[in-house]
Amino acid sequence: QVELVESGGGLVQGGGSLRLSCAASGRTISSYTMGWFRQAPGKEREFVAAISRSVDSTYYADSVKGRFTISRDNAKNTVYLQMNRLKPEDTAVYYCAVRPTTFREYVYWGQGTQVTVSS
Q: Is the Cβ–Cβ distance between 35 and 109 less than 8 Å?
């Protein structure tokens, strides 16, 4: 099993920035696709960003493209989500997740970290 712990969430003003971290343990994540998802109250979970085992392969939801950047540090077994120019609609619980090679779904999930963006 892969254990994931998110951190870095908090309360920020619109236009501000946060950097989320997802520390993995139990397995190295270098060969896995890592993703960030978020869920706001009353809404279903939505995809935010992902990064493959290749550092040049990143993917973003249209809603965050140009504002968020996903990255990974395999030496630290950690994935990051840099969030800039935050908007109130970014308010949600953010989760990191792991999709092992050959899997078509994310199977390991963290407990989430709350991000709240005020007007």
A: no
Q: pLDDT truncated to tens, each residue of the chain (119 aa)? A: 899 999 999 999 999 999 999 999 998 888 899 999 999 999 999 999 999 976 669 999 999 999 999 999 989 999 999 999 999 999 999 999 999 888 889 999 999 999 999 99
Residue 13: exposure state from Cβ atoms within 10 A (0-12, 13-18, ≥19)? exposed
Question: Is the distance from CB of 86 to CB of 12 less than 8 angstroms?
Answer: yes
Q: Are 18 and 46 in contact (CB under 8 A)?
A: no
Helix or strand or coil: residue 90?
helix
CA dihedral 116, 60, 99, 75 (to 10 degrees): -80
SS3 state at 13: strand
Instruction: Say which residue the tokens 């050959």 belong to.
Output: 102
